[in-house]
């Protein structure tokens, strides 16, 4: 019989982030989040903190299209290794307080594929060691230059394994079953569903969610999609976003906070609905979650009937293996251009219907014209 897990406090850290130019600049961001962790652990001492979640790109920041766009060489200057000296500093705090700390969106260089970087989440445990590492799967083609395992799928699986537990790992700990997904992973159901399939009870969800994507009312796409992810998988979801940012090409409220804690019913427990630094605390009750899952009524897993859905996933949509070893994407346009093929497929099979005046085969050409205009006018960098 398992030992009972007492309720504990989880911290969701919403820091100010500085976009840095090289690895030396990382320490400023790291020192800030370390101090915020020290604050939260000390302040919420009555129900001890056992888990901390940090946002995407909390170490290095990132540049998006326009004058501030990052190319691959820009990001490689600030890439780290995991484990490595930066993550070890968080490991020391984890060891000091008996914590699990999840950080996300780290620009990571891996020895197996030295010509590129991965957008990586990690969890360090109370031992101070890295106990989980996850490479972001759904990288937005128009914004994310990091390599997804899907971009190099066959080679990646040969090195790291291609099973659902290899690609979307969940660890069984003394504070529950922990997993993680990153930012755009939460926009569609698949990654959280894979984590749910692997038994996740708490999804640590680092994000760098921009206001242009809908972080505030009336849209607030960030919140309603993540409430759905928590509800569908009957798990806690702890979402961390930047509080504000220092970067010449971004407004301070580029990623305007709205970090939150959502419970296993999809209910929002806590939120920091503003663009400023904050540390949220929430009580996580794993035993209550486990009791909730014993019910049949409105149980989002026991009634799943999988056979009818196989056809949706048999054929690729965004194609795999497009950036094999030795051929990493140098600029965003290389990933965006692949979307022309995706449009051709979606329209050809009738899933999407073109607007008036267009035929199915016209849409990829429309995207190409937009790309050319953006490059000619300095809105999008060339490879």
UniProtKB/TrEMBL annotation:
Family matches, as Pfam families: CN_hydrolase (PF00795)
Alphabetic keyword roster: Hydrolase
SUPFAM superfamilies named among the record's database cross-references: Carbon-nitrogen hydrolase
InterPro entries: Aliph_Amidase/BUP, C-N_Hydrolase, C-N_Hydrolase_sf
Keyword check for Hydrolase: yes
Gene Ontology molecular-function annotations: hydrolase activity, acting on carbon-nitrogen (but not peptide) bonds, in linear amides
N-terminal signal peptide: none
Keyword Hydrolase: yes
CN hydrolase domain ranges (all copies): 8-286
Protein name stated in the entry: CN hydrolase domain-containing protein
């Amino acid at each position: 019989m398992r030992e009972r897990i007492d309720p504990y406090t989880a911290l969701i850290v919403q820091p100010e982030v500085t976009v840095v130019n090289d690895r030396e600049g990382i320490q400023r961001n790291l020192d800030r989040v370390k101090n915020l962790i020290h604050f939260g652990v000390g302040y919420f001492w009555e129900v001890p903190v056992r888990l901390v979640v940090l946002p995407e790109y909390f170490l290095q920041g990132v540049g998006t299209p326009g004058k501030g766009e990052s190319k691959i060489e820009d990001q490689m200057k600030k890439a780290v290794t995991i484990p490595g000296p930066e993550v070890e500093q968080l490991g020391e705090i984890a060891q000091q307080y008996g914590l699990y700390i999840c950080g996300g969106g780290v620009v990571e260089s891996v020895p197996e594929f030295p010509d590129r970087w991965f957008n990586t989440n990690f969890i360090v445990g109370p031992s101070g060691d890295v106990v989980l590492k996850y490479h972001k799967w759904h990288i937005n083609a128009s914004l994310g230059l990091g390599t997804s395992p899907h971009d190099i799928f066959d080679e990646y699986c040969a090195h790291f394994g291609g099973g659902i537990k290899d690609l979307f790992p969940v660890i069984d700990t003394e504070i529950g079953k922990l997993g993680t997904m990153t930012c755009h992973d939460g926009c569609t159901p698949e990654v959280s569903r894979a984590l749910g399939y692997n038994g996740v009870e708490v999804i640590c969800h680092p994000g760098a969610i921009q206001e242009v994507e809908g972080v505030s009312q009336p849209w607030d796409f960030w919140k309603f999609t993540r409430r759905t992810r928590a509800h569908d998988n009957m798990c806690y979801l702890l979402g961390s976003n930047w509080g504000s940012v220092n970067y010449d090409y971004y407004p301070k409220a580029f990623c305007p906070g709205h970090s939150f804690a959502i419970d296993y019913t999809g209910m929002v427990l806590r939120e920091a609905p503003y663009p400023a630094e904050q540390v949220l605390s929430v009580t996580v009750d794993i035993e209550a979650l486990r009791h909730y899952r014993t019910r049949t009524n409105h149980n989002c897993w026991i009634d799943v009937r999988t056979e009818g859905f196989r056809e949706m996933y048999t054929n690729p949509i965004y194609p795999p293996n497009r950036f094999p070893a030795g051929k990493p994407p140098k600029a965003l346009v290389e990933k965006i251009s692949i979307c022309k093929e995706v449009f051709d497929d979606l329209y050809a099979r009738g899933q999407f219907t073109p607007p008036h005046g267009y035929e199915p085969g016209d849409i990829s050409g429309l995207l190409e014209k937009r790309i050319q205009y953006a490059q000619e006018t300095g809105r999008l960098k060339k490879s």
